Amino acid sequence: MARPMGKPGDVYRPPNGTDGRVFMARTCDRCERDREYRAGLADSCRIACLTLLYRACEPEYPREWTYDEDGRPTCTAFAPERPIPPAPASDEAALPSAPADCGDSPAEPTYTDLTRPRTHSRSSE
Q1: Is residue 18 domain-resident?
Q2: Coil, strand, or helix at residue 77?
Q3: CA distances from 63 to 20, 21, 40, 44, 56 (A)
Q4: How many other C-beta atoms can be found within 10 angstroms of the C-beta atom of residue 99?
Q5: In this structure, how many other beta carbons lie within 10 angstroms of the beta carbon of residue 67?
Q6: How many Å apart are CA 51 and CA 12, to the nearest integer?
Q7: What is the pLDDT of residues 4-43, one digit of tens each?
Q8: Which of 65, 109, 110, 120, CA to CA, is 20 to 30 A from 40?
């Protein structure tokens, strides 16, 4: 059974949570504007938040969620997520060398030093 289509340009508000989640999976989950939220670094996109707070008839409801020319729900602010560029190739020659040992500082403990059981010696006074 085909879903009813909306009138192009009308505000879109999902009729239920399932339709809303499907719409968000198709748009918000692939949108650059919501990337930091998905990574746990920032709040969600302002548009997505406002759609949960207001009804479509209220002036605060975002007008970005609308129906396209084919009558399908869309977000006019959708920005396709940019791929993360690959890390540059490692060039060992470009890495700084370790500082020279000055001789007056104690050596850094090694992993073996840190995992070896400690022996405690008490001096008798």
Answers
A1: yes
A2: coil
A3: 16, 18, 26, 17, 9
A4: 6
A5: 17
A6: 9
A7: 588 999 999 999 999 999 999 999 999 998 888 888 888 8
A8: 65
